[in-house]
């Protein structure tokens, strides 16, 4: 199940064309227009060493009546739905795309790191294999903010929903050419995850600063074909989510939790909601 969370993982006021500079904060209150009771928006990092949520986040959860994550991670059918989207389309295989040398390298690498010979993952989207390696990068037992939030929601007998389906989330990785995904995976294997460990330490450091501007700067500095693809990984999804967020918040006080990189920037959820006339303000956290 932990690998599932890694997958989903893996998977961070001016309305002009200038980059949006937002005050510090990971927890934001949404109000105004047709919203009778406030809803809340929280930026997470999907996998971390310490996912303890603070009092303000718990208070916001207690003040709302339902929880929305990127996908409904409480859906018992989620693992089977995920498996239907994990494979490359059109019968593509890593063995047909990689050189014999690179295939051997990946086979040894995945067997060592994931106890998964490449033959078992030959049709997997390479980007998803890269995300599965996230828990190997951590020098700790992986924890998930989403899991912590779900525990509170369940204790409050609240329903849990998703802003997108797992099929939508998996389809994102069909928009990035498979050969580019494979290049990234081979690069990880050749570097034995050294750069990924360094990048993850930097990510957690920036996340803990609660500075969305720094998080967006880090996103823009990514040299990865996958995580650095801002439109596919962030902007396009943000635009689809905002109508869902507005509709849910109008009807019921709701706690929304998505990756923190989705919050900041001119195409981030906060600015997109403000452009629709809603008040979105940071809560001390």
UniProtKB/TrEMBL annotation:
Principal location class: membrane
InterPro entries named among the record's database cross-references: TIKI1/2-like, TraB/PrgY/GumN_fam
Cofactor(s) for this UniProt protein: Mn(2+); Co(2+)
Coiled coil stretches, renumbered: none
Subcellular location: Membrane
Pfam families per the UniProt record, alphabetical: TraB_PrgY_gumN
Key words, A-Z: Glycoprotein, Hydrolase, Membrane, Metal-binding, Metalloprotease, Protease, Signal, Transmembrane, Transmembrane helix
Topology within the bilayer: Single-pass type I membrane protein
Signal peptide region: 1-19
Record's keyword annotation contains Protease: yes
Keyword Phosphoprotein found: no
Protein name from the UniProt record: TraB/GumN family protein
CDD domains noted in UniProt: Tiki (cd14789)
């Amino acid at each position: 199940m932990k690998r599932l969370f890694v997958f989903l993982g893996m998977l961070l006021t001016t309305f002009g064309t200038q980059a949006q500079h937002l005050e510090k904060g990971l927890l934001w209150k949404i109000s105004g227009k047709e919203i009778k009771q406030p809803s809340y928006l929280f930026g997470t990092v999907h996998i971390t060493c310490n996912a303890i949520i603070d009092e303000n986040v718990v208070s916001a959860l207690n003040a709302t009546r339902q929880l929305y994550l990127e996908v409904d991670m409480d859906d018992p059918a989620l693992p089977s739905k995920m498996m239907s989207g994990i494979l490359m389309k059109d019968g593509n295989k890593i063995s047909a795309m990689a050189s014999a040398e690179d295939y051997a390298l990946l086979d040894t690498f995945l067997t060592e790191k994931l106890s998964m010979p490449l033959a078992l993952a030959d049709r997997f989207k390479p980007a998803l294999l890269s995300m599965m390696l996230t828990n190997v990068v951590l020098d700790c037992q992986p924890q998930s903010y989403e899991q912590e939030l779900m525990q509170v929601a369940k204790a409050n007998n609240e329903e849990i929903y998703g802003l997108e389906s797992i099929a939508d989330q998996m389809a994102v990785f069909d928009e990035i050419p498979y050969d580019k995904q494979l290049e990234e995976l081979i690069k990880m294997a050749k570097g034995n995850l050294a750069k990924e460990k360094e990048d993850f330490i930097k990510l957690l450091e920036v996340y803990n600063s609660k500075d969305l501007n720094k998080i967006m700067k880090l996103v823009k500095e990514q040299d990865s074909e996958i995580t650095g693809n801002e439109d596919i990984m962030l902007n396009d999804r943000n635009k689809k989510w905002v109508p869902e967020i507005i509709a849910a918040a109008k009807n019921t006080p709701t706690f929304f939790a998505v990756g923190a990189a989705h919050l900041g920037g001119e195409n981030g959820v906060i600015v997109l909601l403000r452009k629709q006339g809603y008040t979105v303000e940071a809560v001390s956290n």
